[in-house]
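Worked example 2:
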Amino acid sequence: MRFPLLLVLVLSGCDWIMGPNDRRHRGAVASVQVADTVRAGISFDVTILTGGPDGCWSKDRTEVHTDGLAATIAPYDMERRGGVCTLEPVTIQHTATLTFAQSGQGRIEVLGRGGTQTFQVLVEP
């Protein structure tokens, strides 16, 4: 009788047997640090702090897309569901490295869970 019960459990795909069920979310942006002025052809960092309500949240990937003087950054965080977590809120740091090849007025959009934040950057020759 044990074999049929084991077979039912395996075929049912129970998450409690297999472990936590992780979910990826776009980060809830708390702050963004970016220079006002950068040099064309020289890479620079944009630091984005996101947050989670408890210790079940951790850093996932940071997507970066550039096109001329425009850049889009989307930070993602991972929520671990079904596990044991601390109750304290967490701060998660994402770093995106950008390079604008030409001088002019650069535009950086940070796509967070709560909306989009836009930053202007002067790109000097």
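The CA atoms of residues 6 and 12 lie 10 Å apart. Residues 2-12 form the longest helix (11 residues).
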